[in-house]
Amino acid sequence: MGFLNDPCLRRANLIFLYCCVLSSFIQSAVGVKSRHFKWDVEYMHWSPDGVEHIVMGINGQFPGPTIRARAGDTIHVELTNKLHTEGVVIHWHGIRQFGTPWADGTASISQCAINPGETFVSRFKVDKAGTYFYHGHYGMQRSAGLYGSLIVEVAEGEKEPFQYDGEFNLLLSDWWHKSAHEQEVDLSSQPIRWVGEPQTLLINGRGQYNCSLAARFSNSSVSLCKLRGNEQFAPQILHVHPNKTYRLRIASSTSLASLNLAIGNHKMVVVEADGNYVQPLTVDNLDIYSGESYSVLFTTDQEPSKNYWISVSVRGREPRTPQGLTILNYYPTTVSRLPPSPPPVAPRWDDYHYSRAFSNKILALEGSPKPPAKHDRRIILLNTQNLIDGYTKWAINNISLVLPSTPYLGSIRYNISKAFDRNIPPDHFGHDYDIMNPAPNNNSMYGSGVYMLNFNTTVDVILQNANMLKPNNSDIHPWHLHGHDFWVLGHGEGKFTEKDEEKFNLKNPPLRNTAVVFPYGWTALRFVADNPGAWAFHCHIEPHLHMGMGVVFAEGVEQVKKIPNQALACGLTKKMFMMKDEHN
Ligand code: C2O
Ligand code: CU
Questions:
Q1: How far does the centroid of ligand 1 lie from the alpha carbon of residue 241, in Å?
Q2: N or C: which end of the chain has fewer CB within 10 A?
Q3: For residue 420, with 0-12 CB atoms within 10 Å meaning exposed, 13-18 middle and 19 or more buried, which class applies?
């Protein structure tokens, strides 16, 4: 498709041919490419776990097609919304969008949702190698199945700081038999109807409901799962050869579940987290929260006459969802031969000690960028669950985020004062707030204010967890920042105090785009506000975000140029930009 639009090929006279040859020569000289994709987003019948439902697919596929590119490439995705009755937007999770804040793909923040029947082109550069993914960022479209992988390899001629013989990609997600629309209404009801635990864990969009790959190890009456065949739900098997090293890319696009992944009998060496290299860390299994990605290396040094389980289990919530499973198949063993022992058992779901220890062991690879030694501003964000007029919401420093109809990027850039709440959200919460045992709190309200950050300053964010509405309960929240990577300076238990600063890791903190805050704990992050735009910072649990668990940061927006008109053709910017289109 792409080359038909290439002006060089359309006019094949000598001069243009010359320019064509020249430009492709320049392109290949630096190895940088433009990669074009044409996508239709639509609902379709699909059977992710053996039970047919509708999912949001792309070009007839679920999960959506995998994008593969090299660092420095430009991606063009021409996305047509074929949903008929709802808008859509796709976010490129982990891509910082330097210079293209309007391509971040967040409804109400970076752009207007794409209307049914309309097409929007996202054009952006993937500047850094790593394991990423993309997903819907409007309503709860991620829960509806709108996601896929985005893999960026190192630029041509560059090398990774590790070697491997082959590679696999696992995109993890969770799946409900209740539609995302119904979930949305349930969550917004009074009293709330919580979405509950997922029915199935999916690996590359495949899982099996009400059957068990492990049935033969238990006395349960559930039927044995299907291993082969071309069912949409048959697991994707990882075929390996003995005595090789493989790279496994893992990303979690779950709506709710925190996961733990293990490969039976095999150690894994973690080498990448969220698109940044980390100090090699050898583990038996790994925790992965929604919004995170990892690369691990494993060596096929086990008995080649067997197959081995790869298991994905729920952590951090009392599991009511069976493990997600697939098989590591050693050549020449037949695929249908089940592993001789049961699938790996994950650490106890509530062993937070284990989880914290794992998070603390993820450290930057030597030579990685170091954080500035000091911060210019520190924002402490208290995470609470509250009742607002009887509705259950999440609030940050007592403000539950409600997104405006005009995207922030446009309303800040063009100074449209009524587009959102001009009250500046607070940098702190009350000193006397008891995070373990809070007094009833009726101070929360809805808000759409923005944290305006001074351009190029260093910002610390301390995420402070607390008790939920239910006594003796505190949830895990994986927080994800758009437009930046941050350094994770530390995690701690209880209430953060200025003294905790002494324990910050300024030597080799990992750079990431997602970091978890553990129950009753705090997490300290540092980043430089060096990317002009308006950026979401939110809990990556889809129902939590829907219930208001997020904030918006903005910096240097006055420097943003040429926002595509179509990105702003809604809300209060609509008139301005529809008019312009007519004159064009
Ligand atoms: Cu992957 Cu705003 O999220
Ligand atoms: Cu959350």
A1: 36
A2: C
A3: buried
CATH code where residue 306 lies: 2.60.40.420
Nearest to 259 by CA among 306, 314, 208: 314
| Alpha-carbon gap, residue 300 to 248, rounded angstroms | 12
Which domain, by its residues, includes 174?
166-361
Collect all residues with Cβ–Cβ distance below 8 Å to 437 and sequence separation of at least 6: 467, 471
Task: Check if the beta carbon of residue 429 is closer than 8 Å to that of residue 380.
Answer: yes
Q: Which tokens hold the place of 442?
A: 């009726």
User: Total domain count for the chain?
Assistant: 3
User: Could you say which of 131, 153, 175 is where a domain stops?
Assistant: 153
**For the chain, how big is the Rg over CA atoms in Å?**
24
| Residue 20 φ/ψ region, left for φ over 0, alpha for ψ in the -120 to 50 degree band, beta for the rest | alpha
Classify residue 123: in a domain, yes or no.
Answer: yes
Q: For residue 501, report the distance from its CA to the centre of ligand 2, in Å.
A: 24
Q: Which pTM value belongs to this model?
A: 0.93
Question: How far is residue 29's CA from residue 35's CA, in Å, rounded to a whole number?
Answer: 16
273 and 419 inside one domain: no
Q: Tokens 């998070």 belong to which residue?
A: 359
**484 C-alpha vs ligand 1 centroid, how far in Å?**
12
Residues with CB under 6 A from ligand 1: 91, 93, 135, 137, 291, 480, 482, 536, 538, 540
Ligand 1: residue whose CA is nearest its atom 1: 93
Q: How far, rounded to the nearest angstrom, does the alpha carbon of residue 197 sit from its chain's CA centroid?
A: 19
pLDDT in tens, 377-412: 999 999 999 999 999 999 999 999 999 999 999 999
Whether 534 and 411 map to the same domain: the answer is yes
